Amino acid sequence: MNISIMLTFHDDQSLNQLRKQFDPLYSKVPPHVTLVFPQHITFESIDTIISEINKYGTHLENFTPIVSHFEGDLEYHNILAILKRDTSAIKVLHDKLYEIPEFADKQRLDIPYTPHVTSR
Questions:
Q1: What is the pLDDT of residue 77?
Q2: Which residues form a coiled coil (predicted)?
Q3: Domain ranges (residues) in the chain
Q4: Among 21, 35, 104, 112, which residue carries the largest CB count within 10 Å?
Q5: CA 8 to CA 12: how far, in whole Å?
Q6: How far apart are CA 87 and CA 116, in angstroms?
């Protein structure tokens, strides 16, 4: 399970062209900003996790994702579309979600969290 903000764009043609070229999953996974990276959870814990997510996620205001630039992530072979808008609320939500007991010991503190859309 991962936790993401699913994005909708007025004009997503350019991003989808880039994703189509580099991301083999582009047709299966729509543009999104990952908040909690994939974790193994048990079926029994899903309701608890959803309840915890609802405590924090409802405070995030709508925002317009604007890409400021692209960065290469050579370690994971990705192209990242870095969001231009002030992303402090997204970063706070990311940190809060890792306070959920099922995720608490899995946060990667060695990698700074940068809200982005993975283009591959």
A1: 53
A2: none
A3: 2-64+88-109
A4: 35
A5: 8
A6: 10
